[in-house]
Known about the structure:
By secondary structure, the chain is an alpha/beta fold. The chain has helices at 50-69, 71-88, 90-101, 105-128, 161-174, 189-200, 215-223, 237-250, 272-281, 303-315, 335-351, 382-385, 401-408, 424-433, 466-472, and strands at residues 5-8, 11-14, 17-19, 22-24, 29-34, 37-46, 134-137, 140-148, 152-155, 179-182, 208-210, 230-234, 254-257, 263-266, 295-299, 354-357, 372-375, 392-398, 416-420, 438-441, 460-461, 474-482.
Amino acid sequence: MSESRTTVAGVAVATGHHIAGDWVDSTATFEDRSPLDWDVVLARVSRGGPAEATRAVDAALAAFPAWSALGAEGRAPYLRRLADLIDRDVARLAAVECLDMAMLEDSLRERVIARGARNFRAYADLALGYQPRRWDSQGTHNTVLRMPAGPTVVITPWNAPFMLATWKCAPALAAGNTVVLKPAEWSPLSAALLMDLADEAGLPPGVLNLVQGYGDEAGAALVGDVRVRRISFTGSPETGRAIGRVAADHLVPFTAELGGKGPLIVLDDADLDAAARSAVRMYDDAGQVCLAGTRLLVQESVRDAFVERVRASAAALVPGDSRLPTTTLSPLIHPEHLARVEGFVARAREAGDRVVFGGARWRPDGLWYEPTLIEPHANDAEIVQREVFGPVLTLQSFADDAEAVALGNSTPYGLSAIVYTSSRERADALGAALRAGTIWVNTFLVRDLTAPFGGVGISGLGREGGDYALDFYSDLKTYQVREGSTHG
Ligand code: NAD
């Protein structure tokens, strides 16, 4: 056992893997830099591969019988203690995550990290509150029971690392599974802090493990271990497909929460100020939000009035250091990702799309990109059809509700859709016709943890959230007893 730590935002963060309750370093490392200042190397993190992945799955497998046998009652106190510790440490978690991936520190503290604690509490309660379906049929008493599925691999992206790790680990653990978490290599640090808190909460060794490293090394090795019984992935459709192929070979159920290209539809009877405020929120986290409504679809008669509002609010955004409360626009995560966003905009210009505003880096140094709005030359333009994952929105108009639906449903994605209207009737008609996993009317990002969450089309496969997640992390069995054949 060896344990290396580095200090980030005044917090000592472990840079190794966490396996069977011990910190384990690899000789090979990778550099983790801060998007706030790319010259700063925050940490040299252990670069795991097949050996570490195998050890971590060994540990998860060894811990599984005792953890699964505890039952929901036995597991709940651990998860609640972990939730309390996350609440206690919100400020330090937010400070580290802010340096690591540059989301605004205020929103991390007030919203995103706190949601991690809620995830653990909510799933402890939901697992305890499970009401098995019971019914009588053909002379038998029937019950649907949940069996913990086994070692589970959780793979997360870089854009909301702590929240997404807890969103998946909480139901997996509550369902009685043991977990190996592999966070994204661009924002690996908060996962290490989660392991410290899990130790402090007294989680038995091997119940929650961490392997750091690259996707095609550590991630692929974990997914490729035949002993793994569930895979939960959030990331890009390309990686989702690659993992899906392995899951199919091993006949392992997996969920994939993938990218988005949601429409934000503004009808002519909408509160335009509210709709424009919502549109400008799509620049939050530099647009690196899968659920964002990045395609603005506006009814022709209100188009100009709406665009002027969006332009004015976007112009008031303040790029800067995400740690400062005055900053409202954060940088992109990585120079490679900035180049990718720049590539999208350059190709849009070449294709004849019109840049309404923005379309450049905020300044030559640093990873900030201007809030950008692009009017495409056609609906099949790349900028409309592919996820940019940056502060780049598109603007299209429509004549009537039928055309709004047709445009709304015209990409291969289907994660979310947002509608602004003052008519419940029109809202319900659009709500029924739009193909997406989540539809918001006159609001955005309101999430109830018991609701199903996932995507349609290339936005994902399967559903997490509430009982849907607990069912996914369990094997359901039908238990039948012949009526009158037993006492008690
Ligand atoms: P990515 O697919 O490149 O990487 C995601 C994770 O997969 C990382 O941890 C990476 O190391 C790992 N990985 C890569 N190749 C792998 C392989 N062969 N086997 C196993 N693991 C592998 O995605 P990203 O760039 O980190 O994240 C951005 C994407 O995530 C965007 O498309 C975004 O929309 C999506 N996302 C979706 C949701 C959602 O809930 N639907 C939420 C957040 C982000």
